[in-house]
Automatic annotation (TrEMBL):
Keyword check for Metal-binding: no
Name the record gives this protein: DUF2232 domain-containing protein
Organism expressing this protein natively: Euhalothece natronophila Z-M001
Residues spanning the membrane: 47-66, 101-120, 140-161, 170-192, 198-227
Keywords carried by this UniProt record: Membrane, Transmembrane, Transmembrane helix
InterPro entries: DUF2232
Length: 248
C-alpha cells in the first residue's frame, strides 16, 4: 500500500514538473516569436506602391512607344505626363521619381538612351511638377505657368540634343523658316523692309512659350476629365472653364 502511494506521488510530481517545463517552454516560444501584426500591412503597402508605380510607368512607356511608331496626331502627346502625375497623386514624390526613372530605363532598353531622355525632359519632369501642384491644390494659373516654363526649357533641351546628334544647328533652321514666313507676310502687307534677326528670334521665342502654355492648359483639361473619373481629382478649374464644361 505504501509502495502504491509512493508511486502515485512520484507520478504527480513528474506530471507537475512536465507541466511547469511545458509552460516555461511555451512562454519562451511566445517570447521568441516576434510580433508580425504590423509587418503584413507594411509589406503589403510597399508592394502595392511598387506594383502601381511599375504599372503606370509601363503605361507611360507604351504611350510613348505607340506615339513614336504609330503617331495618331497630337492626341497621345496630351497623355505623356499623366501617368507620372497620377503616381504622385496616389503615392507621393518618391514613387513619382521612381516611376520617371523606370520609364527612362525602359525606353533606354527599347529605344535607346537618346529617346528616353527626350521623354524624361520635359514630360517626366512635368508630370512630377503637375502631380505636386495638384496634390497641394495649387490653382490652374500657377500650375500652367510653371508647366509652360518646363515645356519651354524642354523644347530647347530637345533642340540641343538633336542638334548634337544630327551635327546641325536646328535653331538656325527654325529661324530661317520663320524669316521666310515673315518675308511673305511683309510682301502681302506691302512692306519693303526685311525682318531683322532679333525680331525673328523674338517671334520664335514667343511662339515656343505660347505653344508650351497651350499644351499644359490642354493637359489640364484632359486631366480634369480623366483623373476625376479615376478618383484622383485635380483642383477645380476657373469658373469660365466650369461654365463651358458644366463641371462642379
Amino acid at each position: 500500500m505504501s509502495n502504491f502511494s509512493d508511486e502515485l506521488n512520484s507520478t504527480q510530481d513528474s506530471s507537475d514538473f512536465n507541466s511547469e517545463v511545458n509552460w516555461v517552454d511555451a512562454g519562451e516560444e511566445e517570447d521568441s516569436v516576434p510580433s508580425t501584426e504590423a509587418i503584413p500591412l507594411e509589406v503589403g503597402g510597399s508592394a502595392i506602391v511598387m506594383v502601381e508605380t511599375a504599372f503606370l510607368a509601363s503605361a507611360a512607356s507604351i504611350i510613348w512607344l505607340i506615339n513614336f511608331y504609330f503617331p495618331p496626331g497630337p492626341l497621345l502627346r496630351l497623355l505623356f505626363p499623366l501617368p507620372i502625375a497620377l503616381i504622385y497623386l496616389r503615392r507621393g514624390l518618391r514613387a513619382s521619381l521612381m516611376g520617371t526613372l523606370i520609364v527612362g530605363l525602359l525606353l533606354s532598353i527599347l529605344m535607346g538612351p537618346t529617346r528616353s531622355i527626350l521623354y524624361v525632359m520635359p514630360y517626366g519632369v512635368m508630370g512630377v511638377q503637375l502631380g505636386a501642384f495638384w496634390k497641394r491644390g495649387v490653382g490652374w494659373g500657377l500650375s500652367i505657368l510653371v508647366g509652360g516654363i518646363i515645356g519651354t526649357f524642354g523644347f530647347f533641351f530637345r533642340f540641343w540634343i538633336l542638334s548634337i546628334f544630327l551635327g546641325e544647328d536646328l535653331w538656325i533652321y527654325l529661324t530661317s523658316q520663320i524669316a521666310q514666313i515673315l518675308q511673305l507676310a511683309f510682301v502681302q502687307l506691302g512692306f519693303l523692309a526685311q525682318p531683322s534677326l532679333w525680331l525673328i528670334q523674338l517671334i520664335a521665342l514667343i511662339g515656343i512659350i505660347f505653344n508650351s502654355l497651350v499644351y499644359v492648359f490642354v493637359v489640364h483639361l484632359v486631366s480634369m476629365l480623366i483623373l476625376n473619373r479615376l478618383g484622383n481629382p485635380i483642383p477645380s478649374p476657373p469658373r469660365w472653364i466650369q461654365a463651358i464644361f458644366s463641371t462642379d
